[in-house]
Specification:
Elements (H helix, E strand, L loop, with lengths): L6 E7 L6 H6 L2 H5 L3 E6 L6 H5 L5 E4 L4 H11 L4 E4 L4 E2 L4 H9 L5 E8 L4 H17 L9 E3 H6 L10 H9 L6 E9 L2 H6 L1 H16 L4 H13 L2
Parallel strand pairs: 1-2, 1-4, 2-3, 6-8
Antiparallel strand pairs: 4-7, 5-8, 6-7
Helix pairs in contact: 10-11
């Protein structure tokens, strides 16, 4: 008999008071269907945790850093599939149907296509390249709502404790186990980061950081470079 989907959605947050309620209300249908939503806060001083607590199944306090936060959420998760969701990303309405279909097939992990929320034509081009790139390489980013069978995530010891590229590093290891299951129904990610820095500058920044990462530069130095570029934006 096929295994039934039991989903744990893990949302790492830091200073998300302005948007956390909308994020979690969008996940209410999943909770009503019997799945769990776990919010992992890194001590946000803006009241994020208090706003999130009544709208999730479990609130976890963690040290700062997405890798540490997502691992902390995975430790208390009960589902057979873990889905890591950024607070500014919305799942498609048919997410549960798509994930149930994934569970009935051989791949052990996957991601959604992504669409940026802005209306500029360039954002559609950017999303197309992001989705195409991950189909070709098997490497995915957190904006694409990565999901993985819990037993595999645990066998690989989860995310590496690093301040940047934790999603790229994990999916590189996952790709050695199986190709990602790519769901065409797109998640929608807020385009505010792209609009704040400017689309072209953001593209060049991310590709430059990724190139330096593949050449062996440490995630710590890349995180410092990223923060510096964002502050000067």
């Amino acid at each position: 008999m096929p295994e039934s989907l039991s989903l744990s959605v893990i949302v790492p947050v830091w200073m998300e008071a302005s948007g956390i309620e909308a994020c979690l209300r969008a996940l209410t249908p999943l909770r009503e269907a019997g799945h769990e939503v776990i919010v992992v806060d890194a001590g946000s001083p803006d009241g994020t945790a208090d706003l999130a607590r009544p709208l999730c199944d479990r609130l976890v306090e963690s040290s700062k850093g997405r890798a540490a936060q997502m691992n902390a959420g995975a430790e208390v998760a009960t589902g057979n599939v873990l889905l890591f969701l950024h607070a500014d990303t919305r799942l498609p309405d048919n997410a549960l149907d798509e994930l149930s279909w994934f569970l009935r097939n051989e791949p052990t992990w996957g991601r959604f296509d992504v669409r940026l929320s802005g209306h500029r034509a360039l954002f559609r081009v950017i999303a197309w390249f992001m989705n195409r790139r991950s189909r070709l390489t098997g490497i995915c980013t957190g904006d694409q709502a990565i999901f993985v069978r819990r037993d595999l995530f645990e066998a690989l010891d989860g995310f590496r404790d690093q301040p940047l590229m934790e999603d790229v590093e994990l999916t590189a290891r996952l790709s050695k186990v199986s190709r990602p299951w790519c769901i065409k129904s797109a998640v929608v990610t807020d385009s505010r980061r792209w609009e704040k820095l400017g689309p072209w500058r953001t593209i060049f920044l991310m590709w430059r950081l990724r190139w330096r990462y593949w050449r062996g530069e440490s995630p710590e130095s890349l995180a410092q470079a990223y923060r510096s570029d964002v502050r000067n934006g």
